[in-house]
Structure formats: structure tokens, C-alpha cells
């Protein structure tokens, strides 16, 4: 989680972050600044974020944050994704889950998401009608969009 926040920083501000918040030497800062100017801002931000977490938290926290980042944003394999455990009540539909988790703010938007193919259950696209026919959600792995992964528990 810590690493993700640094990716919102504008590239023009990275040099300042390198100077003020990192433990890099002056030579390393110059090298990293040059890499940002050459267009490798993502790699530099990742190194900077790792260094900041390591400095202000711990090496274990930095390793954990890097592992989370790689699984959530770099890995294309569904097995590597980090699924958020979601507990639902008996009788809840998949649309209820999407609304309660804040993925969408209304049932009509949930239906539209199904129609556009944005919801997958166990890796397969599912329609709104198919989602309504599910009798049990327990244990299902659900992907909504590109970055939302849920595992249902009842």
C-alpha cells in the first residue's frame, strides 16, 4: 500500500523527494534524476518508494509492500492476485456485494458493469442474469474491472 501512493507524485517533483525523503547519496540522486528525465520515472519511483518505506518503517515492511505491489499491479496471473476477503449475508446477490463493497454506488451501475463484461467469477465473464442465478456465493473469487479482487465468505 505504501508504494502505490508515491506513484501519484508528478515526475517533476521526484528530484525533490529524492533529496528530502530518501537515504540515497548525491551521486545516486543525480543518476536517478537523469533516469527520470530519460523517461524511466516508474522504476525510479519504485526504488524511491522502497527506500522510503525501508527508512521510515522497516526492511520487512518494504519487502511486503514491494511484494504486494508486484502481485497487484505487475502480475497478470490470477493466482498471484491479492484477494480481499468479503463476508456477505445469506441471500445477498453479487450486485449486493458490489454495492456494499463500494465498487459501484447503485444497482443500475452494477447491472451496467455486468453488461459491459467487467465482472468475472472464477476467471469467466458473467452476465447480470447469470449472477442472479447463483445460489451460493461462498468461496467464489470475483474480479471487478482490472484491480478489484474479492473472495466471498458466508
Using the alpha-carbon principal axes, give the shape: elongated
Number of helices: 8
For this structure, what is the CATH homologous superfamily of the largest domain?
Answer: Tyrosyl-Transfer RNA Synthetase
Spans of 5+ residues with little confidence (pLDDT < 50)? none
In the CATH hierarchy, the architecture of the largest domain is Orthogonal Bundle
The structure class reads alpha+beta
CATH topology of the largest domain, what is it called?
Tyrosyl-Transfer RNA Synthetase
The H-and-E topology, N to C, reads as HHHHHEHHEEHEE
Describe this structure as you would to a colleague:
This protein has helices at 2-6, 14-21, 26-37, 41-56, 59-74, 94-100, 107-115, 128-133, and strands at residues 84-87, 119-121, 124-125, 141-144, 148-153. The two termini are 27 Å apart. It is α+β, with helices and mostly antiparallel strands and 154 residues long. The chain has a five-stranded mixed beta sheet, with no helix packed on it. The protein is built from eight helices and five strands. The protein folds into two domains: 2-76, Orthogonal Bundle (Tyrosyl-Transfer RNA Synthetase); 84-153, RNA-binding S4 domain (Structural Genomics Hypothetical 15.5 Kd Protein In mrcA-pckA Intergenic Region, Chain A). The mean pLDDT is 84. A hairpin with a 2-residue loop joins β2 (119-121) and β3.
Amino acid at each position: 500500500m505504501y508504494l502505490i501512493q508515491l506513484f501519484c507524485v508528478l515526475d517533476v517533483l521526484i528530484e525533490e523527494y529524492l533529496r528530502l525523503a530518501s537515504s540515497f547519496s548525491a551521486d545516486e540522486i543525480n543518476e536517478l534524476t537523469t533516469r527520470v528525465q530519460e523517461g524511466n520515472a516508474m522504476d525510479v519511483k519504485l526504488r524511491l518508494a522502497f527506500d522510503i518505506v525501508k527508512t521510515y518503517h522497516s526492511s520487512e515492511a518494504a519487502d511486503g509492500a514491494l511484494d504486494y505491489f508486484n502481485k497487484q499491479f505487475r502480475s497478470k496471473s490470477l493466482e498471484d492476485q491479492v484477494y480481499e476477503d468479503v463476508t456477505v449475508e445469506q441471500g445477498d446477490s453479487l450486485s449486493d456485494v458490489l454495492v456494499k463493497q463500494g465498487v459501484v454506488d447503485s444497482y443500475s451501475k452494477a447491472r451496467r458493469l455486468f453488461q459491459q463484461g467487467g465482472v468475472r467469477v472464477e476467471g469467466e465473464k458473467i452476465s447480470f442474469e447469470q449472477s442472479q442465478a447463483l445460489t451460493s456465493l461462498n468461496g467464489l473469487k470475483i474480479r471487478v474491472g482490472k484491480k478489484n479482487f474479492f473472495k466471498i465468505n458466508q
